[in-house]
Specification:
Blueprint: H1 6-20, E1 25-27, H2 33-44, E2 53-55, E3 70-72, H3 80-88, E4 100-102, H4 110-122, H5 132-148, H6 155-174, H7 178-183, H8 187-200, H9 203-217, E5 220-225, E6 228-232, E7 249-252, H10 255-260, E8 265-266, H11 272-283, E9 289-294, E10 304-312, H12 319-324, E11 328-335, H13 347-353, E12 354-356, H14 359-368, H15 370-414, H16 422-440, E13 444-454
Parallel strand pairs: 1-2, 3-4, 7-8, 9-13
Antiparallel strand pairs: 5-6, 6-7, 9-12, 10-11, 10-13
């Protein structure tokens, strides 16, 4: 329920409580931001929440309640845009039912005139009314005069509003570019993109990943409500998590919950906190050196293997290197005799059959076998250097071909279109040379080491 003033909202809530025993949540400017958040969350809770949320005019902006489908307009605003904003709190993406709008008013009152003007003149309750502001600007003086004398007939005013609405709507329809609209959505391609997005949106996968990441960095996380958790900085955090404020954050992995409870941040793989935390994890030294035991039939018990992860990447920030040679891993696994095991001893196999070694035992192993491990590390580096040229060459050929295709396209287009500038073609010519220079300077960088003890 929306009313214009906070005092009206308070009186309505008191009336419901005293006369009907119904506890309604309130949402108005007299409450603090935290109190408003709690009221919205109380209303969004379908199991234990309230049935009614009574708002002042601030409830018509910003907050979304598409999980509800009954809207009571206790009074009507003069501005058609504001009426549309009120209705838009419910009638938006995520709404699954027909929105029922209830407008109580007294007969022969100003609200009755305003109701008829909106309903019969603008059809503003049934459809969006893009012409509403213009009609209001033209009829403002006459409308205010009728509101001051609600007993007088407003028939001619409403008829003129309906006529203007029809004319302006027809003009808007004539201005539509139907060819553009037709080509704006190619349904088969759109369906494939939607299916791919649904596949990527696996709440269980990202929930498990983020909870592990929170634990690794020392962030506290605890349940908030159904489907939501609160994440706060822990007392022993190793690094500040990007985007995590000091007072914490309410997050969810469920899109429907995020749509219903907009104060909960929806964590997807594209959320800034997730992306920046992954970047922090990849760029930090935490976890890039470890010792573990593994069951592996390809080597005898007690054998020592060294797994090294090298990264091929360009430090150049311009298009060429970053686009055509993204960070590319080179994984090497060698035993003490120099034999390679990276194809048979896969990361999945290690994760499935590895056993954690305590810190003291790991330190003793490293100290006892340090000369062997140093030799293996040098061998791994040579192996990575040997594999890098083929990867760089492949990236260079693919990149040059992509740039040449774009250059050929612009040259062909310039013959029939004088708007194609020479600077555009020169840009791709420079990119070709830049790609060659950047890739020539790329080499493998050691990123992580894991010592494996075969059991």
């Amino acid at each position: 329920m929306i009313a214009a003033h906070a005092s009206t909202a308070v009186e309505l809530a008191e009336a419901l409580r005293h006369q009907f025993g119904l506890h309604a949540a309130m949402f108005h400017e007299g409450l603090s931001l935290v109190e408003r958040d709690r009221a919205a969350a109380f209303f969004a809770d379908s199991e234990f929440g309230t049935q009614v949320l009574i708002c002042s005019e601030i409830g018509s902006e910003g907050r979304n309640f598409q999980f509800a489908h009954h809207l009571v307009l206790f009074d009507l605003p003069l501005n058609p845009d504001l009426l549309e904003q009120r209705i838009g709190r419910l009638d938006r993406i995520g709404q699954t039912q027909r929105v029922e709008i209830h407008v109580p008013y007294l007969q022969n009152s100003a609200q009755a005139v305003l109701h008829d003007w909106y309903h019969l003149g603008l059809a503003a309750f049934e459809h969006t009314c893009p012409a509403g502001p213009q009609i209001y600007a033209e009829q403002q003086a006459r409308l205010h005069a009728r509101l001051a004398e609600p007993g007088a007939s407003a028939g001619s005013l409403i008829e003129q509003a309906a006529h203007l609405n029809k004319e302006l709507h027809a003009a808007l329809q004539r201005g539509r570019d139907r060819l553009l609209e037709y080509n704006s959505c190619r349904q088969p391609a759109a369906d494939r993109l939607c299916a791919k997005a649904r596949d990527m949106e696996n709440a269980a996968t990202i929930a498990g990943y983020m909870e592990t990441l929170f634990d690794a960095f020392g962030a506290d996380h605890q349940p908030h409500s159904e489907g939501c958790i609160i994440v706060r900085p822990g007392e022993h955090m190793l690094h500040p998590l990007p985007g995590l404020p000091d007072d914490g954050l309410t997050v969810t992995y469920d899109r429907d919950i995020a749509l219903a409870f907009e104060d909960a941040h929806y964590l997807s793989w594209e959320h800034p906190m997730v992306r920046d935390s992954m970047e922090l994890l990849l760029s930090s030294e935490m976890g890039n050196c470890t010792v573990c035991a593994v069951k592996y039939p390809g080597a005898c018990a007690g054998a020592l293997l060294l797994e090294c992860l090298f990264i091929l990447e360009s430090s150049h920030r311009q298009l060429a290197g970053r686009q055509h040679l993204p960070p590319t891993p080179i994984r090497i696994v060698l035993d003490e005799q120099g034999r390679q095991h990276d194809e048979t001893l896969t990361p999945a196999l290690i994760n499935a059959h590895s056993v954690t070694i305590n810190t003291e035992t790991a330190r003793q192993i490293i100290q006892a076998r340090e000369p062997v491990l140093r030799t293996l590390l040098q061998d791994c580096a040579r192996q990575a250097e040997a594999r890098a040229p083929a990867i760089i060459d492949r990236a260079g050929r693919q990149g040059q071909q992509a740039l040449q295709n774009e250059l050929d396209r612009l040259r062909a287009l310039s013959r029939v279109n004088s708007n194609v500038r020479r600077e555009e073609m020169e840009f791709f010519e420079r990119q070709q040379q830049l790609l060659t220079d950047v890739l020539h300077a790329v080499g493998p960088r050691l990123d992580a080491i894991r010592v494996l003890v075969v059991t």
